[in-house]
Amino acid sequence: MNFDEFTGQVQHRLELPGTGEAVRATRATLTTLGERIQEGEASDLAASLPMEVDYYLTGAVADHGQRFNWSEFVTRVREREGMADPDDGADAAYHARVVLDVVAESVAPAELRQVRDQLPADEGWESLFELVDAD
To answer: What's the confidence (pLDDT) of residue 130?
Structure first.
């Protein structure tokens, strides 16, 4: 999948008005995920993604392996996406799920399992993979 196909899928599934919004949702989700997982795992996951997208997991992240909870993940995604209202957390979480679902179509299942293994096994983090599991 190339960059246009990737962002097109995100845009279509989220019913966003333009590519810019799809890129923002992708950047917000993957940069925040890249902050949460270890650098090596971020690089492994990024390797199968379009070059313009893999940067968000690796190059855009100053500090990998940070320890923060699901609520903080959603807050960071919401803020990076430019959602000003804290009540937009549900939308930010859904956007992250959709982006991860598109990522799942581009990477080997083993890579996604390794990412999951780095995240706590609680309801919030498991919900990140809700759409992936439904496929």
So the answer is: 85
Distance CA 96, CA 119 (A): 15
- In this prediction, the residues of the chain whose per-residue pLDDT falls under 70 are 135
CB distance 101 to 135 below 8 Å: yes
Query: CA-to-CA distance for 69 and 72, rounded, in angstroms?
Result: 5
SS3 sequence of the chain: CCHHHHHHHHHHHHCCCCHHHHHHHHHHHHHHHHHHCCHHHHHHHHCCCCHHHHHHHCCCCCCCCCCCCHHHHHHHHHHHHCCCCHHHHHHHHHHHHHHHHHHHCCCCHHHHHHHHHCCCCCHHHHHCCHHHHHC
pTM of the model: 0.94
Per-residue pLDDT at 81: 95
> HEC string of 98-120?
HHHHHHHCCCCHHHHHHHHHCCC
What the block records as the tokens of 67 is: 């320890």
What does the pLDDT read at residue 87? 79
